[in-house]
């Protein structure tokens, strides 16, 4: 198994921020947020690494790797868990899916459909919830930002990320299902923190990002009401920008590119870029 030459940035001892993009519900905009903000940061000179953990492999696809499992020479996160390679050895450069050129400053660890077996794979591990906590030091000091993109549940992959991350970003939409997913996520954070708070784990959400929002009641009063409820409930941790429902987001997905790469002037791309700036990921 090989990786691209010079795929891994040198460990300079830089401060690394590990962001966890998550929700207790699927389809909440986690991958869209991660890819959009991560690309925006890389385009502004920050060293960024994606660590996606979904068997659907959507973030890998947005970074130029349509089916990592089809190429046995490509390392994946599951290979790391299998002991075939280390986490640092699994880092590959992100590619522009249209031109196949390397995207400067942007890297990732590829997903695998085998990640659906993660809980079984780690069943015999002592304190298996700490699996990612043990691995992440290999990336710290090499990147400015590591973004962990969680699957749409709060099982072992997400639990490991919540323990290991520096900041927890709850991604949601102005819809009941995704808003309820945030509540489930909060309950899980509280539960896990009781056992693993000694690791430095965060005890609450750091940010809430609202996607697919509307600007007025004529576009759907229920959506506007739910956004209002979210902003009232979470207060200052809600990102100022609501990412509006924008056709460029599904277009970018079809083109297999982050929306901030596909159409940087689109409403959604501009909003995500502003959110990354509010989070002080870049200027």
TrEMBL record:
Domain AAA: 18-195
Name of the protein described by the UniProt record: Sporulation initiation inhibitor Soj
PANTHER family on file: COBYRINIC ACID AC-DIAMIDE SYNTHASE, P-LOOP CONTAINING NUCLEOSIDE TRIPHOSPHATE HYDROLASE
A Pfam family matched in the record: AAA_31
Database matches in SUPFAM superfamilies: P-loop containing nucleoside triphosphate hydrolases
Highest taxon listed in the record's lineage: Bacteria
Organism of this sequence: Streptomyces caniferus
């Amino acid at each position: 198994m090989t990786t691209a030459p010079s795929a891994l940035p040198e460990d300079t001892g830089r401060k690394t921020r590990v962001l966890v993009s998550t929700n207790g519900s699927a389809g909440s905009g986690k991958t869209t947020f991660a890819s959009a903000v991560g690309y925006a940061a890389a385009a502004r000179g920050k060293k960024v690494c994606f660590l996606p953990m979904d068997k659907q492999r959507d973030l890998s696809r947005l970074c130029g790797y349509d089916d990592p499992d089809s190429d046995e020479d490509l390392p994946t996160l599951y290979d790391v868990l299998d002991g075939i390679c280390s986490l640092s050895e699994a880092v590959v450069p992100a590619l522009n899916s249209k031109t196949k050129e390397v995207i400067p400053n942007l890297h990732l660890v590829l997903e695998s459909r085998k990640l659906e077996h993660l809980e079984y794979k780690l069943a015999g591990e002592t304190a298996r919830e700490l699996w990612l906590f043990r691995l992440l030091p290999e990336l710290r000091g090499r990147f400015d930002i590591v973004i962990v993109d969680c699957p749409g549940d709060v099982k072992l992959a997400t639990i490991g990320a919540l323990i290991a991350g520096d900041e927890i970003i709850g991604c949601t939409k102005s819809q009941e299902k995704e808003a309820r997913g945030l509540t489930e996520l909060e309950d899980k954070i509280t539960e896990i923190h009781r056992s693993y708070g000694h690791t430095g784990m965060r005890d609450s959400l750091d940010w809430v990002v609202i996607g697919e929002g509307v600007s007025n009641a004529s576009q759907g009063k229920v959506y506007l009401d739910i956004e209002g409820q979210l902003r009232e409930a979470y207060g200052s941790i809600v990102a100022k920008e609501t990412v509006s429902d924008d056709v460029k987001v599904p277009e970018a997905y079809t083109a297999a590119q982050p929306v901030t790469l596909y159409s940087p002037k689109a409403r959604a791309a501009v909003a995500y870029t502003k959110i990354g700036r509010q989070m002080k990921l870049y200027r």
